[in-house]
Amino acid sequence: MSDLKQINPQQLSGNAIQRIGTDWMLVTARKGDQVNTMTAAWGGLGVMWGKPAAFVVIRPQRYTYAFVEASDTFSLTFFDDNFRETLNYLGTVSGRDEDKIKKSKLTLANSQDTPYFTEASQVLICRKLYRQTFDPDCFIDPAIHQQYKEKDYHIHYIAEIIEAYQR
Ligand SMILES: Cc1cc2nc3c(=O)[nH]c(=O)nc-3n(C[C@H](O)[C@H](O)[C@H](O)COP(=O)(O)O)c2cc1C
After folding, report:
1. Where are the domains of the chain?
2. Helix then strand then coil, % of the chain, to nearest 5
3. For residue range 135-160, what is the model confidence (pLDDT) as tens digits?
C-alpha cells in the first residue's frame, strides 16, 4: 500500500464529521473487471454490532450504486486539500458518461479484490453488513422530504471496516 501504513481503525486520525462532511471522501467499488467511484459527503464512522463501522448513503441513480451492490466490499478514501478539484470532478460527472478514473489521474490499487486509490491519506476497506432504502414514512422531521423531490431515497449501507490504512 505505497507509504500507507495499516492501523487499527481506532487509531484513525481526524474528526469524522469534518473528514466526511467538509473534506469529502470517495466511495469505490468493483463490478467484475470494472471499477467506479463517486464523491460522498454524507455518512459516518462509528461502531455497530460491536464492529468498527462506516455508514454510507447512495442515491439509486448513481452509477456507483450498481457497483456497491455487486460487491461484498468497497473502499472509502480520504485525501488532502490538493485533491479537492479531483473530488469535485468525481462528484459531478458520472462514470456512465466518462472514464472518470482515468481522467482523474488517480492511481487504482487493490486490497484483495477491493479497489482504492494510492494517493489517499486514509483508506478504509469496508465489508457490507446491512443495506436498506430510506423509508419516507420513517422521516420524523418533515423537512427531510425536501431532500427527495424525485423520491430518489438513498440506499443506506452499514459496513464493517475490515482494514484501515493511513499515511
Ligand atoms: C461534495 C459532494 C458530495 C456528494 N455526496 C453524495 C452522497 O453522499 N451520496 C450520493 O448518492 N451522492 C453524493 N454526491 C453526488 C455524486 O458524487 C455524483 O452524483 C456523482 O457524479 C456520481 O457519479 P457516478 O454516477 O459515476 O456514480 C456528492 C457530490 C458531491 C460533489
Report:
1. 5-166
2. 25, 40, 35
3. 999 999 999 999 999 999 999 999 99
> The domain 5-166: what is its CATH number?
2.30.110.10
Would you say the CB of residue 91 lies under 6 angstroms from ligand 1?
Answer: yes
- 94 CB near ligand 1 (under 6 Å): yes
- pTM for the structure as a whole: 0.98
22: left (phi over 0), alpha (psi -120 to 50) or beta: alpha
- Mean pLDDT of the 47-62 span: 98
Residue 106 near residue 75 (C-beta atoms within 8 A):
no
User: Cell numbers of 119, please?
Assistant: 494517493
Q: Which atom of ligand 1 is nearest to the CA of 40?
A: 5
Q: Which of 39, 74, 81, 86 to mutate to test the pocket of ligand 1 (most atoms within 8 A of CB)?
A: 39
Which of 20, 30, 38 has the most ligand 1 atoms within 8 A of CB, as the residue to mutate?
38
Q: Is the pLDDT of residue 1 over 80?
A: no
Put residue 112 in one of left, alpha, beta given phi > 0 → left and psi -120 to 50 → alpha: left
